[in-house]
Write a structure and sequence with these properties.
- Helix content is 38%, strand content 23%.
- The chain contains seven helices and seven strands, in the order ααβαβαβαβαβαββ.
- A seven-stranded mixed β-sheet has the order 3-2-1-4-5-7-6.
- Helix 6 packs parallel to helix 7.
């Protein structure tokens, strides 16, 4: 797995987590990442898949006049299979659902509060293709206890890789 560029991008993914993303992406054709920030995780997945990665984030609403989006694009520009989707999670999920789109791999790493984690899981889980992987970041991370609480409630059959929760569903 090639994660060398991803490691150089500022973010909070450990090498173990980046390798998990790369390995899962290698087995996936349609990937959606909810919460992309500066692109560290997208840069772990992109060189390791022949598929497409839709990166959903609200870069334009971060109050930085597009700076985060520009940084994300500079990190991911080398990958033709990365498609930024500058929308809120719920709006993007609705648009993908209306188009009949499903994903082999869904990775949630957006807002970490109880309300948004619950909404993200509820909105995106129906878009998982049979046999797909449903996962998210920051499980049991001390600064965001709501992630663990809501994942345990809504996705009880999961395993943990560092701070990533993973459910293979079919």
């Amino acid at each position: 797995m090639n994660i060398s560029h991803a490691i150089s991008v500022q973010g909070w993914m450990s090498p173990v987590e980046l390798n998990f993303l790369a390995e899962t992406a290698a087995k996936s054709k349609r990937i959606v990442e909810i919460g992309s920030y500066k692109g560290r995780s997208a840069c772990a997945m992109a060189p390791n898949t022949e598929g497409t990665i839709w990166c959903v984030d609200i870069w334009s609403e971060c109050g930085t006049d597009g700076w985060f989006y520009d940084v994300f694009r500079s990190h991911t520009a080398r990958y033709s299979n990365v498609i930024p989707v500058n929308r809120s999670s719920i709006w993007a999920a609705r648009e993908f659902a209306e188009s009949g789109m499903t994903f082999d791999f869904i990775f949630i790493d957006a807002a970490h509060d109880r309300f948004n984690v619950r909404q993200d899981i509820a909105a995106w889980r129906p878009l998982l293709a049979p046999g797909g992987v449903f996962a998210g970041h920051d499980y049991a991370f001390k600064d965001w206890p709501d992630v663990k609480t809501i994942v345990d409630e809504m996705v009880p059959k999961h395993r943990i890789i560092d701070t990533i929760w993973v459910a293979e569903e079919g």
